[in-house]
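Title: Prediction job returns without error message
Component: structure pipeline
Severity: low
Priority: P3
Assignee: unassigned

Description:
Job completed but the reporter wants confirmation the result is attached to the right record. Sequence as submitted:
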Amino acid sequence: RTRQEREKQAGSAANNQRAEASLAESKLTATQVLSKVLGMMIVMGSFFLKMPQILKIISSSSVEGLSQEAVYYELPLYSSGVIYHLLHGFPLSTYGEMVVVMIQNITIVLLMWWYRPVPRREMVERTLQFLAVCLVQFNLPKRLRPVLSYVTVPLLITSCVPQIVANQVQGHTGTLAISTCFLKAMGSAMRFFTTVAEIGGDLG
């Protein structure tokens, strides 16, 4: 009888372990599904991130208040993220909005050149600089690829400083769209969750 009781207890323990494992797996799957849904929402929402800014520039035929340097600095910020995720083969749902926003930033640069004419030489130099940065980012050795992710923080800070200074000097925000800032903050919070859920916290 003692042996039978031990076997029964062992079988019961094994069933409990399987049940716990199954529950844990279902929770993980639920988290991943939620992450996928949020990721696609971020990607779809990114189409409207810079759109208020673009429409405001076009409607006013002016880029007053926009810091040219701030817009330039945002380009390598997003290209770093896009190339990092591409090289690691991560799902599009984890970085799709970066592609969209980068295209929108390029559109804003073109609008700035249209409404605030700059010398053709500067246009060519800025274009070549951006292409050169992308080429270097794409050809980084595998052990240095995490730098593409780490560098986004200083680039983000650097891109914000010129705009803050410009606002302070001008005493107004010009054609800056507040909705763009709000959407960017909300998207960043959601992206933090999806990145941890789908990729994990180890950037290396």
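Comment from assignee: result matches the submitted record. The two ends are 55 Å apart (CA to CA).
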